[in-house]
């Protein structure tokens, strides 16, 4: 039993904290908000220069060769600072499946560039009207040695800025996962405006021809990839949410300790203290389930249930901590001159991404039913 | 980070589980149906508890200098969790909280007799803190102890003195200096034998269990029964409350109820001859139970781990107390809903489900949110210690 992080991991976290802390002040964030595309490219490059974008990439690809758990520490710090950088879509959802399932050529084409900040990749998980990437509407028909893809993906983060995008498509009798070049003829991007301001796009494919060289996985392996990709992304979101919620709550504790009404700091009202304490408890739960999910994935153990549970807590805690933080701030909490609003918007974004609490509760319930029906007794942990 | 038991710890868990199954004899199950003996005290309980003493389980978590086996907090947690899961009415407060304090602070003669009795599973001690007018504000207690030669003369009333109906001693907090500048400064701890003249005990029937009111009328107690220094009782009380919190919240007992409920729903058919477990709303309740249980499991493990690392923060202990006790209340409801109206049938009733365990658990469950330090006070601690928020008053 060990709940601690290694020296190395703590160093990575300290480095991330320093770089992100220095560059995410309210003024800087306001500049980024004012940009047409809400992407802090300088910060992204600084993270790359410090080696942090390659934290979980193999050393032969220019990475540091650490595990997913170490990367999750970076994600938590990005959450803490709501930095406008594509850590989850690029470093988790796209890069890790590519690193595990991709061909040498595919990895070579993307990963070193990702690590040094020059080459961005992303992933498309959902489609209009369909949040299950293992059962896409997007279809692939065989054509010679390759395929022709038609369909739409949406809410694809940073698709305009990235070079390639991991996508799934349904062939006649199997699932396919591609490393789709975003410059492919027949592909168009339409900008979408999402609540937290993350650059997102609808990606329309009209008879896009793809060759064998960009196929990452097919059949059983494609299903395995998609399942793992979702698990990783859910755990990553939970880790980011932990930092995000923790920062929101600390901002709230500080604000209410200074803000006076009726001649006393509002924090001294027991009802205020207790609402904050409830958030503290919530965040402790979120931290624990997120650490478990991340740890299991890092160790290569079965993480399906743990990542589902972590994402359910993420949805619930993001909602509750965000609403409590706004409420306890009064008007200041919704003022766009004060930094809290960015956290609240991101909280909603994380809450609803890659499975809401309601949907995942249903999925978990189904899994529980199966485990009790098949064995009569669930195996004891 | 590696959130898993070692092989040795897993083996310990199985060993305790197997061992406790043997302690839960049919005779004990029958005896527990008598509300006077639900929390122990009957002859079969005495027999099995003494067996645990003989087999060395009681001293497991004690430090070796006090005659114990130096088990880690994690091992102690495994033991506690499995004992709770078994529903054996183990007197945790006697063995884990008061026993080690006596071993450290009691007078030689008393230590020799009482500590040995505890470790042999022969002695049970009830806690006499609360009074009719002193609950959460424990330091305001009024029971008086006045020095008279070699003795103390004790007068007062305690309320909610659980286990007093069969305990051998009351671990009593009394006021010895009514003029101290702060009310928690004038308190002293005593061990009162329950067969002493002037002591009496009346039952108090609660929603879930029997507890007692205990009365002290000119109880003349030799000074050797005083524990620790005069007017220094508060440190012993609070030191003990922290240990108490550890055995208050754990995972095994409700995990077992969850598993039994899901197993029941899998094996029980609905009107259309399909397992109840296929119903969406049942799956939903079980999923919510599981989500909360998993957080509780991790929280308990992390606490035990943090104690072993000497890293348990004030706020974290309170987080576990509040989350755990409120989740107990929540999960009883989630599981009772699965059982439906038949969930209201009591243990020996015709048609009772899972032996009426949940019907009983929910009635006992409500005391945990205000007992062991009211959750409001725990939340005060969390906002002050965890978030540096200033306190009112
Ligand atoms: C079944 C049972 C067994 C028990 N066993 C024992 C035992 O063996 N030995 C023993 O000594 N005691 C025992 N107790 C007593 C128990 O410890 C007390 O009930 C507990 O300390 C609360 O005290 P109280 O009941 O007087 O409630 P009060 O102190 O009157 O509190 C009532 C409510 O007021 C609110 N409140 C109190 N203080 C605050 C505050 N600071 N801020 C905000 N809200 C507050 C809380 O909501 C609290 O629940 C037992 C009680 C029960 C019911």
Describe, in plain words, how this protein is organized in 3D:
The complex is a heterodimer of chains A (381) and B (393). Chain A is built from eleven helices and ten strands. Chain A has 381 residues and is of the alpha+beta class. A four-stranded mixed β-sheet of chain A has the order 1-4-5-8. In chain A, strand 9 and strand 10 (264-265) form a beta hairpin. Chain A is globular and about 80 Å long. The two termini of chain A are 14 Å apart. In chain B, strand 6 and strand 7 (210-222) form a beta hairpin. The mean pLDDT of chain B is 94. Chain B is of the alpha+beta class. In chain B, the strands form two sheets. Chain B has a four-stranded mixed β-sheet with strand order 1-4-5-8. Chain B contains twelve helices and eight strands. Chain B has helices spanning 7-23, 26-32, 43-54, 73-86, 92-105, 108-119, 233-248, 252-267, 280-308, 314-339, 357-365, 375-386, and strands spanning 125-128, 144-148, 151-158, 169-175, 187-193, 199-205, 210-222, 226-227. Chains A and B meet through helix 7, strand 10, helix 8, helix 9 and helix 11 of A and helix 8, helix 9, helix 10 and helix 12 of B. Residues 126-130, 135-136, 160-162, 206, 209, 211, 367, 370-371, 374, 376-377 of chain B line the site of flavin-adenine dinucleotide.
How do the helices and strands line up, and which of them pair or pack?
The complex is a heterodimer of chains A (381) and B (393).
Chain A: H1 7-22, H2 26-34, H3 41-49, H4 68-81, H5 87-101, H6 104-115, E1 121-123, E2 139-143, E3 146-157, E4 164-170, E5 175-181, E6 187-192, E7 200-210, E8 215-218, H7 219-258, E9 260-261, E10 264-265, H8 270-298, H9 304-329, H10 340-352, H11 357-375
Parallel strand pairs in A: 1-4
Antiparallel strand pairs in A: 2-3, 3-7, 4-5, 5-8, 6-7, 9-10
Helix pairs in contact in A: 1-4, 4-7, 5-6, 5-7, 7-8, 7-9, 7-10, 8-9, 9-10, 9-11
Chain B: H1 7-23, H2 26-32, H3 43-54, H4 73-86, H5 92-105, H6 108-119, E1 125-128, E2 144-148, E3 151-158, E4 169-175, E5 187-193, E6 199-205, E7 210-222, E8 226-227, H7 233-248, H8 252-267, H9 280-308, H10 314-339, H11 357-365, H12 375-386
Parallel strand pairs in B: 1-4
Antiparallel strand pairs in B: 2-3, 3-7, 4-5, 5-8, 6-7
Helix pairs in contact in B: 1-4, 4-8, 4-9, 5-6, 5-7, 8-9, 8-10, 9-10, 10-11, 10-12
The structure holds flavin-adenine dinucleotide (FAD).
